[in-house]
Write a structure and sequence with these properties.
Largest sheet: 7 strands, mixed
CATH architecture: 4-Layer Sandwich
Low-confidence stretches: none
Number of helices: 7
Structural class: alpha/beta
Order of helices and strands: EEEHEHHEHEEEEEHEHEHEE
Radius of gyration: 17 Å
Strand content: 25-35%
Length: 256
């Protein structure tokens, strides 16, 4: 299984337009963060976690030739507004692309992208999507996929656990709290990545002081934080985290 972080930033992205802070002006390439998205390759399949507004640029930057399925986490703009950029991939597929989402997220996608339930005008193209509700664990071409409920403000939020050939990866990019069942499903995974927005507390995201004990409780072989805002640089984030934990960054690729 290969995991590639296409984007690791918060909703503004880094640099943030109109901002001259040290992180937004940083020469460290790890401080340039697209909105969050993750690519997972396993069993000959390419799975995408979320469709941020930067998706087209991310796909071009990483030379992504195909996407076989999408796993949505929630319906906030920074995670769904690149949804229509799936269109060139779906146009090359023999069947509509499967997209899994929670019930609330699926309803929001149908409201915003209302063409999902309409045929295209002859001579035009629409993203051909098979939108499915994620209600529990299921298999996709030999890959085990498990939705992971999490608390993130009013969002109908789920992370995802992806398992293949004895390897496991859990991603919960936006969260304030993880329920006991989700913690149990993540415990002992090969790789876990969770939200750590900044140093200061936030009402709907974990900060570093909240994320660290959660990662310790999970006890993954490798632990990362994601969804960093411009208040913390990559270097500073690395200093804030104890041994065995690190910040993810755009372009990070991990083989499991």
């Amino acid at each position: 299984m290969r995991v590639t972080f296409l984007g690791t930033g918060t909703s503004y992205g880094i640099p943030m337009p109109g901002c001259d802070c040290a992180v937004c002006r940083s020469p460290d390439p790890r401080d340039r963060r697209f909105r969050t998205a993750i690519l997972v390759e396993a069993a000959g399949q390419v799975l995408l976690v979320d469709t941020p507004p930067d998706l087209r640029s991310q796909c071009l930057a990483h030379g992504i030739r195909k996407i076989d399925a999408v796993l949505m986490t929630h319906a906030h703009a920074d995670h769904i507004f690149g949804f229509d950029d799936l269109r060139p991939y779906t146009n090359r597929m023999p069947e509509p692309m499967p997209v899994w989402a929670s019930a609330g997220t699926a309803q929001t996608l149908r409201n915003i992208f209302d063409y999902l339930d309409k045929p295209p005008i002859p001579g035009t193209s629409l993203a051909r999507i098979d939108l499915r509700i994620a209600e529990g664990p299921f298999d996709f071409h030999g890959i085990r996929l498990t939705p992971l409920p999490a608390e993130h403000g009013h969002a109908d939020m789920i992370g995802w656990k992806i398992e293949h050939q004895g390897r496991s990866f859990a991603a919960i990019p936006d969260c304030k709290q993880l329920p006991p069942d989700t913690l149990g499903l993540c415990r002992g995974a090969d790789l876990v990545v969770i939200d750590a927005l900044r140093i200061r507390p936030h009402p709907t995201h974990m900060n570093f002081d909240e994320a660290i004990p959660v990662l310790r409780e999970i006890g993954a072989r490798r632990s990362l934080v994601i969804h960093l805002c411009h208040e913390v640089s990559h270097a500073q984030a690395g200093q804030l985290l104890p041994g065995g934990m690190a910040p993810a960054y755009d372009g990070l690729r991990i083989e499991l």
